[in-house]
């Protein structure tokens, strides 16, 4: 299983012969200007909510790749209105796919589309594929609903926002790992804007002190999971 980071909350997971692209926001991100979006391939595009820093490249990449877009019904309706045809709308709950199983889970945030229309509820995902269970929290604050994940899964990795202000910060993310019982974390949603800038070395050290791993791959870097 491979993980490639594209900045903010956008990343690609490759597993079981499939490519899963999450929250495509690349071309407007100055930190990701070296990423050539024309070379990105995907079988599925998963969208946690409708904010521009999560959907800016959704329509163009959905059309480029013909990937199946999975998101809340309101996000899917917005994408369809712009010509995206390969879609699967979900809400909180689980569904089986050819790659395994996917569950949409609660996220404590807000959601609206770039045009100001209603974006439905924000969400996170638990992706079960390739023999692993990966939790992507989406944009969320610390919330007790995360404790339910420990009842449902033995998570291999958690992909968590750590920039604060709009989402959990490093300290909240560390607390959340105790809720869902996962010691391997990949950080997202940090350093893109000044208000979510963090000290990355200090963040890694905080996790290390609790015998947990915080991975912060560079934009464009691919790591093995």
CATH topology annotation: Metallo-beta-lactamase, Chain A
CATH class: Alpha Beta
Total strand segments? 14
CATH-defined superfamily = Ribonuclease Z/Hydroxyacylglutathione hydrolase-like
Question: What brief labels describe this structure?
Answer:
225 residues, alpha/beta, Metallo-beta-lactamase, Chain A, seven-stranded mixed sheet, 14 strands, 28% strand, globular
Would you mind describing this structure in some detail?
There is one protein chain. The protein has one domain (about 1-215): Metallo-beta-lactamase, Chain A, CATH 3.60.15. The termini are close together. It is α/β, with parallel strands linked by helices. It is globular, with a radius of gyration of 16 Å. The longest helix is centred in the last third of the chain and has 11 residues, at about 170-180. It has a seven-stranded mixed sheet, with helices on one face. Strands 7-8-9-10-11-12-13 form a seven-stranded mixed sheet. It has helices spanning about 50-55, 60-65, 75-80, 145-150, 170-180, 200-210, and strands spanning about 1-5, 10-15, 20, 45, 70, 85-90, 95, 100-105, 125-130, 130-135, 155-160, 185-190, 215, 220-225. Strand 1 (about 1-5) and strand 2 (about 10-15) form a beta hairpin.
Spell out the blueprint of helices and strands.
Elements: E1 2-5, E2 11-15, E3 18-22, E4 44-46, H1 52-55, H2 58-65, E5 68-71, H3 73-81, E6 87-89, E7 93-97, E8 100-106, E9 123-129, E10 132-136, H4 147-152, E11 157-161, H5 170-180, E12 184-188, H6 200-209, E13 213-215, E14 222-224
Protein name: UPF0173 metal-dependent hydrolase GM920_15225
GO molecular function: hydrolase activity
Family: Belongs to the UPF0173 family.
């Amino acid at each position: 299983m491979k993980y490639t980071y594209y900045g903010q909350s956008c990343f690609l997971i490759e597993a079981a012969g499939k490519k899963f692209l999450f929250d495509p926001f690349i071309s407007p991100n100055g930190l990701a200007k070296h990423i050539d979006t024309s070379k990105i391939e995907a079988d599925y595009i998963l969208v946690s909510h409708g904010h521009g820093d999560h959907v800016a490249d959704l329509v163009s990449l959905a059309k480029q790749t013909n990937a199946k877009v999975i998101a809340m019904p309101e996000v899917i309706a917005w994408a369809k209105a712009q010509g995206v045809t390969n879609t699967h709308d979900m809400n909180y709950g689980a569904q089986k796919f050819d790659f395994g199983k996917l569950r949409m889970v609660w996220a404590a945030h807000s959601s609206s589309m770039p045009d100001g229309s209603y974006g439905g509820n924000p969400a996170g995902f638990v992706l079960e594929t390739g023999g692993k269970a990966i939790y992507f929290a989406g944009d969320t604050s610390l919330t007790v609903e995360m404790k339910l994940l420990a009842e449902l899964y033995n998570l291999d990795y958690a992909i968590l926002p750590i920039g604060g202000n709009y989402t959990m910060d490093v300290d909240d993310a560390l607390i959340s790992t105790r809720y869902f019982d996962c010691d391997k974390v990949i950080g997202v949603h940090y350093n893109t804007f000044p208000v979510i800038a963090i000290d990355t070395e200090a963040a890694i050290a905080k996790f290390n002190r609790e015998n947990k791993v915080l991975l912060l791959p560079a934009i464009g870097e691919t790591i093995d999971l």
